[in-house]
Amino acid sequence: MSRAPSTLDLVGRAVATVRSDGLAKVIRRSIPVVDRRRKRLVRRALARAGGVSAGRRYLHLRRQVRPATVTDADPFVRHWIDPSRIERQVRGASKRWGRVEDGAWDQATVPFDETPASESVVAHFERGVPWTDTVEFEAYLERLEAGEQPKGCTTVEELEARFEAFDTIYERIERDGYRSQPELWNERPAYQREIFYKWDRSLDPRLDEITVSIGRDGALLHSDRGDHRLAIAKLLDLEAIPVLVRRRHAQWQSVRDELSAATERAELTERSKQHLEHPDVRDLHAFDASTDGTGTPL
Questions:
Q1: Compositional bias of type Basic and acidic residues: which residue ranges (predicted)?
Q2: Are 121 and 138 in contact (CB under 8 A)?
Q3: What are phi and psi for residue 71, nearest 5 degrees?
Q4: Could you give the CA distance from residue 93 to residue 206 in angstroms, rounded to a whole number?
């Protein structure tokens, strides 16, 4: 198995690239690496400064400066939703909390049931396929052999243990129902800390929920965390699970803004009226979604 490249190895590669391709190419290649490191350092700094409370203060200040890029919603509030509503997974998921973004990112999606995590969960729990024979394990194994550390694993044994832990998660959810991360943390802090910090030290572990983004039409799109738990919840046909919203499309944010500002139903556009019961906005208004505003049933 290949070992992970050391700092000396990386420096050697950079020197070789400078000699063969020139300094400009090295600089271009370095920009995304530096940007990833910068974002990781910001997340770690926020975690050390107070985690969720520091994150809220940061987003509040950012919204004052760039209101079009940050939502009015608290990104750390959980929404309990039917997992069957999450039908697709967005590509290039955002790692940032509370952001509002325009563009076509919400249309670059794949069916969640066709993701490696979902296919592997179904294969293992429905058909009895060993984890080591699933498509996702094989993909991670290739990355491990290429010198990467997928999910923080440095050996095949660690990778196998990582997947075998899903058996325990499945059994717990089937037996006790789905519980939020704060509930699990309060019950078993040492265990939660051990399994979480092994592969991610940049986030408050109590935020390690299934995350979604919300598209322009209100679609709940799986984002970057909790894909195996979501697949298990779907397989067990659970009624509701807690999710955190990472990102909202600018057009969807305009629906939130409209519902927040309206004092009468007549002020709403037809588009906003269609979303009165959406989990992201139903607490913003007191309008009855079952009537036309005059008491007449729809």
A1: 270-286
A2: no
A3: -75, 160
A4: 20
Residues 28 and 166 in one domain: no
Q: What is the pTM of this model?
A: 0.79
Q: Which amino acid is at 249?
A: H
Counted residue by residue, the chain has a size of 298
Same domain as 85, residue 21: no
Domain membership of residue 178 (yes or no) is yes
* Interhelix angle 23-49/7-21, nearest 10 degrees: 150
Residue 131 · residue 249 · CB < 8 Å = no
Q: How many CB atoms are closer than 10 A to CB 81?
A: 19
For residues 248 and 150, membership in a common domain is answered with: yes
DSSP assignment, residue 70?
B
Quick one: how far is CA 274 from the chain centroid?
26
**Per DSSP, which regions of the chain are E strands?**
79-81, 88-90, 99-101, 109-111, 210-214, 220-222, 241-249
- Provide the residue type at 60 as one letter: H
Summary mean pLDDT of the chain: 85
Could you give the number of structural domains in the chain?
Answer: 2
For residues 35 and 126, membership in a common domain is answered with: no
Strand partners, 70: 99
Domain membership of residue 180 as a residue range: 50-273
Q: Is residue 216 included in any domain, yes or no?
A: yes
Whether residue 13 is found in the same domain as residue 161: no
Confidence tier at 292 by pLDDT (50, 70, 90): low
Name which of 217, 222, 234 is nearest 84 in CA terms.
234
**Ramachandran angles phi, psi of 68, nearest 5°:** -75, -10
Instruction: Give the pair of three-digit tokens for residue 74.
Output: 């608290």
